[in-house]
Structure formats: structure tokens, C-alpha cells
Write a structure and sequence with these properties.
The structure is a homodimer of 188-residue chains.
Chain A lengths: L5 E7 L4 E10 L2 E11 L5 H19 L3 E6 L6 H20 L4 E5 H8 L7 H11 L8 H18 L18 E4 L2 E4 L1
Parallel strand pairs in A: 1-4, 4-5
Antiparallel strand pairs in A: 1-2, 2-3, 6-7
Helix pairs in contact in A: 1-2, 3-5, 4-5
Subcellular location (chains A, B): Cytoplasm
Family (chains A, B): Belongs to the RuvC family.
Cofactor (chains A, B): Mg(2+)
């Protein structure tokens, strides 16, 4: 890997399954590295959070990312789910900061806009667009796709959206949800 | 400290202030060790969770507890608060399990029953009873008192509530909220 590439780790936290996605980015170029799902094990909450942290640490140790990205969550219709997701997210962020990784946060809306071009995209659309943007042979599993989407979103944010207009690497995006603003191609 | 004492760390997690309380327990006897409040610092959530974890780790390294106790939280009337508290709690549990501490969980109702004798106790009553049970010269700060209450609750649970009837160490409890059931003094 060239020194100029930056390795990003996206995390989609959950108490049962936590998705992860690793990509390398350099200006306009994104390269897929790895993705998958951490199956969280254990009976009680402390045990599950430990399993979640251990899983994330294993991914960090294996792929050595330089920055991390996690979805900002909002309150769920079900308050109990909100609490559980909050705890999982707290543990996931803990795992990342304990590895001294910068943690970037984006809303679900920002992630969907980044990969599909609009904020109302369904899970399947996110999976498809992630596969296209990273030239994957098949759609990644949903949690892994969300984690990759987080990494892609941050990758785009890093290089400034405007750069999208110059390069074919993110060309898939230009077909949907992009528009010209002040003479530059920007995401909707 | 005698080898037969077990050191318990209670944690009352929060994103601004996290209370902690350390006690030594041996059968009927509880000894106060330390308590205080971790002032959580930092701007964004990841930074604050890191600060929270570092604070808990400092307490663990200083007092070397053998077990830990944390309040089970329930959904708040404010969903956003529920999410924030969930994240703080997730990070706090993470900090504890990463130090290989067993984490015991009790509901607010159980904590209040354990120290005050009934589940509707107000914050001030918890502070007063914690001070009495541990023979403190003054009431501890509210977050620290809740953390000590968690530790006391687990201490009582460990030795079985029935032992309370034999010993003066927890005698403060017998004046309020205790009743005789099947010939034994039990907490309400």
C-alpha cells in the first residue's frame, strides 16, 4: 500500500451483529480492503459488550486502520431498543478510542446520500451502491454494507465532494443524486 | 486489608459526571474505602467516552477492586437522554470488563431498597443512608452516593439478605423498611 493511502474503518454497531468495513482512500480513489460481521457472543450485557470490543480490536489489529467512522444514531421508536443500541454504540466507540483511532460520526442521512445520492435509500440500495462504488463481485451483507457506507461517506468528506466531478473512481455516484451547484458536481 | 475482604467498585455512569464508590466487604461487615466523581471532559462524544473510560481505569488502577457494580438503567422520558445515558453506560461497562472485572447489575429499585428499605427513596435519602451505613462523617455527593449504593446493594446480595438480622454492621437498615418474613428479617 502506498504511504499516501489512508485506511478507514467503518463500524455499524449492534448488540447481536456489528458490521465492519475497511477501505483505503487516496484523493479520488477508494480501494476495498475487507468487510464482515462480528457476531457478538455472550449472555449478559457486560459479556456481550466485551465480545463486541474484542471483535473490533481484532479487526483493528488485523487491518491497522488510521481513522474510524461510525453512524450517528437517533432515537428509535422503541425506547428499549434505543437504550440497547446506545450501549452497543458506546462500547464500539470505546473500542475505537482505546486504539487511539480518531472517530468520525455521520448521520444515516449523510451515509445514504453519500452512497446512493439521496437520504431515503433502502438497505438493498445501499448494499448495491456500496458494491458498485467498490467494484465488489457481489453485494455485501447488510451490516457490512452499512459499515462500508460509513467509510465511503467519510472518504468523500475528506477529499471534498467537489473532487467527485473530476474522477471516474466514484463515477457510479454521478448517475444518481448528484447535481451541479455553482459549476461543480455535488451530492444532493 | 485482610485477604478475606472483597473490594467492590460501584459506578454511576453519566456523560458529564460519573460517580464511583469503593467499599470492602466481608460477610456482615462493610468498610468504606473511597468515593468521588469523575468529571467527564472533552468536546465530542468519542472524546468524552475516552475521558470516562480513562477516569474509571484510573480508579480501578488506584483501588484494585475485585468486582464491580453498575445500575441497570431504564428508558427515560426523554429518548435523547436515554440514548446518551446508554452510550455512557456502554462505555463504563466496557471500561470495567476491559479490566477483567465481573460486572453486576442492579435496578434503581433494588439499590434504593438495599440502602433505604423501599424503592421510592429520594436522592437525599440515598445519600443519608449511604453515609449512615458506611459511617461517613458527611453525606457523599449524589453521584458518588449512587455508586456507593450500588456497591452496598451487591454487598448485601453477596452475603444473603438474611444475614442482616444477625449483625449490627448493617443495623441502620433495621430501623426502616425491613420486615420479618418467615421468621427472618428481610428488606422490603
Amino acid at each position: 500500500m502506498s504511504q499516501t493511502f489512508t485506511r478507514l474503518l467503518g463500524i455499524d454497531p449492534g448488540l447481536r451483529f456489528t458490521g465492519f468495513g475497511v477501505i483505503d482512500v487516496h484523493q479520488h480513489t477508494m480501494r476495498y480492503v475487507a468487510s464482515g460481521v462480528i457476531k457478538v457472543a455472550g449472555e449478559g450485557l457486560p459479556e456481550r459488550l466485551r465480545s463486541l470490543i474484542d471483535g473490533i480490536h481484532q479487526v483493528v489489529d488485523t487491518y491497522a486502520p488510521q481513522e474510524s467512522v461510525i453512524e450517528k444514531v437517533f432515537v428509535n421508536v422503541n425506547p428499549q431498543s434505543t437504550l440497547l443500541l446506545g450501549q452497543a454504540r458506546g462500547a464500539a466507540i470505546s473500542a475505537l478510542v482505546l486504539k487511539d483511532l480518531p472517530v468520525h460520526e455521520y448521520t444515516a442521512l449523510q451515509l445514504k446520500k453519500a452512497v446512493v445520492g439521496h437520504g431515503k435509500a433502502k438497505k438493498e440500495q445501499v448494499q448495491e451502491m456500496v458494491a458498485r462504488l467498490l467494484s465488489l463481485p457481489a453485494n455485501p451483507q447488510a451490516d457490512a454494507a452499512d459499515a462500508l457506507a460509513a467509510a465511503i461517506c467519510h472518504a468523500q468528506n475528506r477529499v471534498q465532494i467537489a473532487l467527485l466531478s473530476q474522477n471516474g473512481a466514484l463515477g457510479g455516484l454521478s448517475k444518481k443524486g448528484m447535481r451541479i451547484k455553482n459549476g461543480r458536481l455535488v451530492s444532493l
